[in-house]
Design goal:
Elements lengths: L1 H19 L5 H13 L6 E5 L5 H6 L5 E6 L2 H13 L5 E5 L12 E7 L8 H11 E12 L8 H10 L11 H10 L2 E7 L9 E8 L3
Parallel strand pairs: 1-2, 1-4, 2-3, 4-5
Antiparallel strand pairs: 5-7, 6-7
Helix pairs in contact: 1-4
The structure holds S-adenosylmethionine.
């Protein structure tokens, strides 16, 4: 619990800069948005965890009925709300919540989205189990996740140093195969596994996983 509070402070501190940083691989990001959109319907109720400054929620809001976008950082959520007002978006709600305790009642969402967030969660099995419960039967969990174990091995040394100086949040190291196993362990069937980056090697895996109807 203490770690989550520390993480919230970290993300609060960098939120205004994060909001103005350009998206690193815009082409890859647009591919992910387009692909995500293809799985959503205009009557869908959608939850996003770790929504940051709301860019993705606001891009997808015109194509769904309602999107509830959440983040542990109140500063990120404040920026997302400002952007929603600036864009006159009526069907996106932003609220402060950890992914581990994402809001909603069981079986209430058609889709749950999580972009660049699963590697920041320590207890992924229970978070994935919660997402599974929140989804309707046949509901979709759509995620894009940096698999740090597939990146330059030096990152294993760089991250603890950055954390020591307060320059990096908690992160988990895993491969796409290990993440796959965790998603399956929560009861999902993965139906899409793609890499959208425009570079030669993309360590971020885009996954669409379905909750079975039973
Ligand atoms: C790398 S940013 C990604 C933001 C956005 N999803 C995107 O793709 O641009 C990670 C976000 O997750 C949030 N976050 C970190 N740990 C979290 C947690 N345990 N629960 C909810 N949000 C969390 C941070 O505040 C931050 O806004």
């Amino acid at each position: 619990m203490l770690r989550t509070i520390d993480d919230a402070r970290f993300w609060d501190r960098i939120a205004r800069k994060y909001a103005t940083d350009p998206i690193k691989d815009l082409t890859g990001y647009e591919r992910s948005i387009e692909r995500t959109r293809s799985f959503l319907g205009n009557s869908d109720t959608v939850l996003e965890i770790g929504c940051g400054t709301g860019t993705t929620a606001l891009a997808l809001a015109p194509f769904v009925s309602r999107i509830v976008a959440t983040d542990v950082s109140s500063e990120m959520i404040a920026i997302a709300r400002e952007k929603a007002v600036a864009q006159s978006c009526q069907n996106a709600e932003f609220s402060v919540a950890t992914a581990e305790r994402a809001p909603g009642s069981d079986g209430s969402y058609d889709a749950v989205l999580g972009f660049n967030i699963l590697h920041l969660i320590a207890d992924r099995p229970s978070t994935l189990a919660r997402i599974h419960r929140l989804l309707k039967p046949n509901g979709l969990f759509i995620s894009k996740t940096p698999c740090l174990s597939e990146m330059n091995p030096l990152i294993r040394y760089a991250v603890p140093v950055a954390q020591f100086f307060g320059k990096a949040p908690f992160v988990s190291f895993f491969t796409a195969t290990e993440l796959d196993a965790e998603i399956a362990g929560a009861g999902f069937t993965t139906i899409v596994r793609e890499r959208h980056g425009s570079g030669r090697k993309d360590a971020r895996i885009f996954v669409v996983a379905r909750k079975s109807a039973a």
